[in-house]
Amino acid sequence: MAAISREEVAHLARLSRLAVTEEELDTFAGQLDVILQAVAQVGEVAAADIPPTSHSVPLTNVLREDVVTPCLTPEEALSGAPDAEEQRFRVPRILDEDVAS
Amino acid sequence: MTTTLPAYDEVVARYEPVIGLETHVELGTNTKMWCGCPTDFGGEPNTRVCPVCLGLPGSLPVANKAAIEATVRIGLALNCSIAQWCRFARKNYFYPDMPKNFQISQYDEPLCFDGYLDVEVNGELVRIGIERVHLEEDTGKTLHVGGATGRIHGATESLVDYNRAGIPLVEIVTKPIPGTGALAPEVARAYVTELRDVIRSLGVSDVRMEEGSLRCDVNTSLNLPGEEWGTRTETKNVNSLRSVERAVRSEMLRQAAVLGAGGRITQETRHFHEDTGDTTPGRSKETATDYRYFPEPDLVPLAPDPAWVAELKAALPELPRLHRRRLQEAWGLSDADMQSVLNAGAVELIEATVAAGATPAAARKWWLGELSRRANETGVELADIGATPAQVAELQGLVDAGKLNDKLARTVLEGVVTGEGSPTEIMTARGLEVVSDTGALTAAVDEAIAANPAIADKVRSGKVAAAGALVGAVMKTTRGQADAQTVRTLILERLGAQG
Amino acid sequence: MTDVTAMTATQIAGLVATGAASAVEVTQAHLDRIAAVDGRVNAFLHVDTEGALAAARDIDARRAAGEELGPLAGVPVAVKDVLTTKGVPTTVGSKILEGWRPPYDSTIVERLRAAGTVMLGKTNMDEFAMGSSTEYSAYGPSRNPWDTDRIPGGSGGGSAAALAAYEAPLAIGSDTGGSIRQPGAVTGTVGAKPTYGGTSRYGLVAFSSSLDTPGPCARTVLDAALLHAAIGGHDPRDSTSIPAPVPDVVAAAKLGATGDLSGVRLGIVTEFGGEGAEPGVMATFREAVDTLTKLGAEIVEISCPHFRYALPAYYLIAPSECSSNLARFDGVRFGLRTGDDGNRSLEEVMSLTREAGFGPEVKRRIMLGTYALSSGYYDAYYGQAQKVRTLITRDFTAAFERVDALISPTTPFVAFPLGARTSDPYQMYLADLFTIPSNLYGGPGISVPCGLSEGLPVGLQVMAPTMADDRMYRVAAALESAVGTFTPPAL
């Protein structure tokens, strides 16, 4: 049985903001299936009582003093922008109104 | 769709509301959460940005110590436990005001959790459970262009300014609040008010709803007595204390109408409209984004030292509610008088004015009188009126010293408010000091008597009331700078009459 | 003057320090070499001729003024295009950043400048450092100077190829699953992955934040150590940077070069005992083990039972982090934007931009990571992979209680022909089979040439405990002193 369906791959592409083609969907579905079956091996390990490792360095409380440092100039900030207007980054109309915070 | 809304009394007679509040507070740190860019409000677009808060490739966050400390202090003031170890997490979603297309937030390991805040509603204490207090980052600001209203709908493009992106944001989430019945809207408002005062007393944020440094989302559900809690909606965009109350009430009415018609409440985000007081639906939560939270690999865990937490706890200021009670006693105010001070937002101002040397009565008189009137007229917050507590105390000092009379003091205060300088400076510069030199006054009195022989005769003959016209004449020649009572006494003396 | 491009960094620094050669002459010689051979190697994505010569002139002026210069002053260096360089194009091998000139320098690049090195340009890489051959570069593959029909390894194939083609004596790479060590192995050069947190990631365009480690590449162990010392150490702009001095890797390399490993215990990982590795590679490795024994090292076999799960765990953790790290490439603040015709919505334009800007391997990993982080799959995939990471770390910790360092072949196979593994992504992943465990653990690893198999270089990997980078330099330098360095046929 396939680990992942073509529809699931299409959903992942949407979530990832990738306008993949139909042809790509076929290819990716097959490849991701192979990869997922291989990586699913991690499930063989009995690790119920093992703590997860998110960071390999044993550091905590790395903090910065609340001191102002120089900013970029607006010209520098906008230098790489594909489009700018009124010293702001211009984007096409936005469909999705909801903003989480 | 127009539905007839039921009467509020009927709604609360039939249903029990459960409310919950999520409040976001922008911290008043000098710099942003992850970088050294300044946080001051306003400023030309994209002038307070760097590779980190623009999310440029390769940039990395480093947590602001002051923001961590402020969050722990908020947590402590809200009687929370402080995590011994916790991590930041990435909340993944695409939106152009999020430079990285993920927000660094906290997920299942908040910095502070499980606390409460007692609030007073109609003289009764209500304990609001606090679920969690966590730290995250603010977004940039999006300007919608091309639409008629500046709103997103109908806009042809949007322009993004990242000055606000990365400002530390504390999220405070209550536990569900059942059992408030008809008072649910007032409880919601009282909670946000008290929370605002607590945070202000900590000095960690200016908590201004109108500037967006305090923002509120309100959860509301209704259920029949004895039944399970209903499906809740989340109302966003609630940007004033009054709106908090209105949003709860309006959502209770709407939900009751839906339920009354046999309908079902959808779990969704709704938007509050300040102008109409209504809410309209946003995205349905049933198809909500999966944020794919995972521990932020670019930041290491936080493990607040218990000794440090204990120190912060010991140094917390008095709770605003207790502080207010103490002030009320010290100032000798009735509950009603104290309430008007609170309503005017004048507690701290009066307190500071008293600290600067004025009597409580005098301080209250200026802040609730002349200054409140001006604030109302010009539509600014009392705290922003332009006069400081120190200046008000100085002004009162001049009155007490007899250098200004009440009328002159008002004139001087007007100068203070319009930025002319300190009360003493204005008094001197504009020559407003009360004429207290008796020689000069006597000359003015004699002049007035000589110029009005008929009136003087009337006074001499015992018609003391006629002296008013002579007082007026003296006040005119001294341009109002004489003390009217002194002038009257002098006139009566001069004319051998008794007052 | 003899050809400076054939010299080590140590030798070049000596020439510049004594005034026998100017930094400008050294730089020009390397620029000439690049002009002559890079058409066949494609190691560079951008050659910063003007910037390099200006930096060289500055070094010469400072030397003339009597200023004391660092041990690498005047030595040219090639920088993997994964590090930001202020005003100099930084593409990460991707179309999505084509033409982007960052407004800031990475910490590594700042330190390279402070050390007096001269940056020649930016080297080719698999797009976003995802790959083991540079075939996933959006700008065409680099080629292995040993055989230009073969891959130079990846993702840092450009840096390794530049060294092997004598276009630069030093290079910077970044290693997330083997991207420094594996290219080093297949090009006959030295590549070291420092302890995670030992070199700053500030300005390193992130692939997988908890694994990415910038590090040195060179033709000799001592050169790599000198470069490591120059770029390493605490950086307050990287929260995961370790606030401790870099272990004395230079002294360790010099000690190792004496050829004495007596008292050093080395462990061979049982689980890397040949399964999936080419016989020729294993044979060369075993010869190298014999050499190490002759140098006085004690060899023991050690089982690290969870290493077999390193590859699957890695291909869950790295894509998960990458799916989030690469979300910012949306055509709003920098880089490519396509499809903005005035009618399409932002969402459409973003999706078209990412579709056009990312290559297939990047898209695969973004989708894989999005999947692994989804609610409902998180525990079984990402969560479980992080637990496996803990178990792999415990394997290392247990092993280092018995031995000073672990050794293995760096890669299971020698440089393969271009195109041999591109159609099956998982076959490509196997190239990092032996290098990935160190990344999951966070400890350092180095690849040093140990011989040839079928005329192609084989690397030996030395893995050391975290913050014991000096140990691996000592072992690598000792082996190098015995087997020598390896020079490819003339291009």
Automatic annotation (TrEMBL), chain A:
Swiss-Prot/TrEMBL GO biological process terms: glutaminyl-tRNAGln biosynthesis via transamidation; regulation of translational fidelity; translation
One MF annotation (Gene Ontology) recorded for this entry: asparaginyl-tRNA synthase (glutamine-hydrolyzing) activity
Q: Which UniProt keywords apply?
A: ATP-binding, Ligase, Nucleotide-binding, Protein biosynthesis, Transferase
EC supergroup of this enzyme: ligase
Instruction: Extract the SUPFAM superfamilies matched here.
Output: Glu-tRNAGln amidotransferase C subunit
User: Entry's InterPro entries?
Assistant: Asp/Glu-ADT_sf_sub_c, GatC
Q: Where is this region: Disordered?
A: 74-101
Reactions mediated catalytically: L-aspartyl-tRNA(Asn) + L-glutamine + ATP + H2O = L-asparaginyl-tRNA(Asn) + L-glutamate + ADP + phosphate + 2 H(+); L-glutamyl-tRNA(Gln) + L-glutamine + ATP + H2O = L-glutaminyl-tRNA(Gln) + L-glutamate + ADP + phosphate + H(+)
EC number(s) per entry = 6.3.5.-
- Of which family is this protein a member? Belongs to the GatC family.
Entries under PANTHER family matching the protein: GLUTAMYL-TRNA(GLN) AMIDOTRANSFERASE SUBUNIT C, MITOCHONDRIAL
HAMAP family with a match to the protein in the record: GatC
Q: Describe its partners and assembly state.
A: Heterotrimer of A, B and C subunits.
Name recorded for this polypeptide: Aspartyl/glutamyl-tRNA(Asn/Gln) amidotransferase subunit C
| Protein species of origin | Micromonospora craniellae
TrEMBL record, chain B:
Q: Which domain of life is it from?
A: Bacteria
Lineage, please? Bacteria, Bacillati, Actinomycetota, Actinomycetes, Micromonosporales
Assembly behavior: Heterotrimer of A, B and C subunits.
Q: Which InterPro entries match?
A: Asn/Gln-tRNA_amidoTrfase_suB/E, Asn/Gln-tRNA_Trfase_suB/E_cat, Asn/Gln_amidotransferase, Asn/Gln_tRNA_amidoTrase-B-like, GatB, GatB_Yqey_C_2, Gln-tRNA_amidoTrfase_suB_CS, Gln_synth/guanido_kin_cat_dom
Which species expresses this protein natively?
Answer: Micromonospora andamanensis
Pfam family membership, one: GatB_Yqey
Keyword list (alphabetical) reads:
ATP-binding, Ligase, Nucleotide-binding, Protein biosynthesis
Full protein name: Aspartyl/glutamyl-tRNA(Asn/Gln) amidotransferase subunit B
Domain spans labelled Asn/Gln amidotransferase? 348-495
Family according to the record: Belongs to the GatB/GatE family. GatB subfamily.
Q: What is its EC number?
A: 6.3.5.-
Q: Function, please?
A: Allows the formation of correctly charged Asn-tRNA(Asn) or Gln-tRNA(Gln) through the transamidation of misacylated Asp-tRNA(Asn) or Glu-tRNA(Gln) in organisms which lack either or both of asparaginyl-tRNA or glutaminyl-tRNA synthetases. The reaction takes place in the presence of glutamine and ATP through an activated phospho-Asp-tRNA(Asn) or phospho-Glu-tRNA(Gln).
TrEMBL record, chain C:
Q: What are the UniProt keywords, alphabetically?
A: ATP-binding, Ligase, Nucleotide-binding, Protein biosynthesis
Record field: catalytic activity: L-glutamyl-tRNA(Gln) + L-glutamine + ATP + H2O = L-glutaminyl-tRNA(Gln) + L-glutamate + ADP + phosphate + H(+)
Q: What is its EC number?
A: 6.3.5.7
Could you name the active-site residues?
80 (charge relay system), 155 (charge relay system), 179 (acyl-ester intermediate)
Q: Mind telling me what this protein is named? A: Glutamyl-tRNA(Gln) amidotransferase subunit A
Describe its assembly: Heterotrimer of A, B and C subunits.
Q: What class of enzyme is it?
A: ligase
Tell me the Pfam families matching this sequence. Answer: Amidase
Read off the InterPro entries from this record: Amidase, Amidase_CS, Amidase_dom, AS_sf, GatA
The job of this chain, per UniProt, is described as: Allows the formation of correctly charged Gln-tRNA(Gln) through the transamidation of misacylated Glu-tRNA(Gln) in organisms which lack glutaminyl-tRNA synthetase. The reaction takes place in the presence of glutamine and ATP through an activated gamma-phospho-Glu-tRNA(Gln).
